Amino acid sequence: MRKLYVYDHCPFCIKARMIFGLKNIPVELVVLQNDDEATPIGMIGQKMLPILEENGHYMGESLDIIAHIDREGTPLLTVPARPEISDWISRSSSLLYRQFLPRAAAAPFPEFSTTSGRAYFIRKKEASTGPFCEIFNEGTEALLPLNAVLEDLASLLPEPSALQGPLSYDDIHLFAHLHSFSIIKGLTYPAAVENYRQALSKRSGIPLLDSVAV
Ligand SMILES: N[C@@H](CCC(=O)N[C@@H](CS)C(=O)NCC(=O)O)C(=O)O
């Protein structure tokens, strides 16, 4: 069977997992320790997941994996992408990742099951954000702009019935982004956003992170 090497915190890995779940194509998930550099470098020459292993070959890059799997059987991602969705993702990304990274670092993800795996992530990410404790100290004030962007998203979403049929690459990017949001406790999801993230979680078989949110 094919193997997909992932980290549970990684939005690009969520994207790659989605296409298998949405198309009901089996794949074995393998979670690497976050400080395991040798395994991914041995496969694709860089320390980067997701990686798909198929018939002894390795493929990196989430979008290449998605396109490859979507070519199998009937393509699913046939609805055209809308620029307003990629604009919204770009607009909310830096707000999201500032709050996401310290929470991910504290979460019970399997890639952090060793102390050195977790320390590797903290060291690497704090180099760009500054100390995680300072971000936690920003408290609930820091969540207000995230609630505001979630409000903006509500009016951009497709009708719920559209989520039963063919999908768009927008849905891959947007669900992965909302999956990252779900590790942040105390956000307010407008009904349309809540319905969207629950519908895609169910259809892809990828649980949201609400139960481990902090
Ligand atoms: N362009 C790549 C980006 C993947 C990516 O950035 N993966 C991150 C995890 S979210 C990674 O493996 N970074 C190296 C590390 O965590 O040390 C893709 O779409 O697959």
UniProtKB/TrEMBL annotation:
GO terms for cellular component: cytosol. Residues 1-77 form the GST N-terminal domain. The gene is grxB. InterPro entries: GLR_AS, Glutaredoxin2_C, Glutathione-S-Trfase_C_sf, Glutathione_S-Trfase, Glutathione_S-Trfase_N, Grx2, Thioredoxin-like_sf. This is Glutaredoxin 2. Gene3D superfamilies: 1.20.1050.10, Glutaredoxin (3.40.30.10). Pfam families: Glutaredoxin2_C, GST_N_3. It comes from the Bacteria.
